[in-house]
Design a protein that fits this description.
The chain is an all-alpha fold. The protein has helices at residues 3-16, 21-28, 32-39, 48-58, 62-65.
Length: 88
């Protein structure tokens, strides 16, 4: 996971929706400080369950937050990687 892309997209999505950091943190069940670490790229090994919860709360696809797709709503083509590293 590229923590910088994930953190940036998380921050921009939250900002665009005018959601406070503390409110999003409470909604997904993590501390404000942990969410801040994610947004600044200082948190490593974020669980996929948390990525999914954040995406759902922000109305975007997890693939977008992770940088696997540039389509936040999943309406176009999505780039994903297969387990063997091929781009599908």
């Amino acid at each position: 996971m590229n923590t910088n892309v994930f953190g940036n997209r998380l921050h921009l999505s939250r900002r665009d929706l005018h959601i406070k950091l503390i409110d999003l943190a409470a909604q997904v069940g993590v501390s404000q400080s942990y969410l801040s670490k994610i947004e600044t790229g200082r948190a490593k090994n974020v669980s996929f369950d948390l990525v999914e919860a954040l995406a759902k709360a922000l109305g975007v696809r997890p693939e977008y937050l992770l940088g696997w797709s540039d389509d936040p709503l999943g309406e176009g083509n999505t780039i994903s990687s297969a387990a063997d590293g091929r781009v599908v």
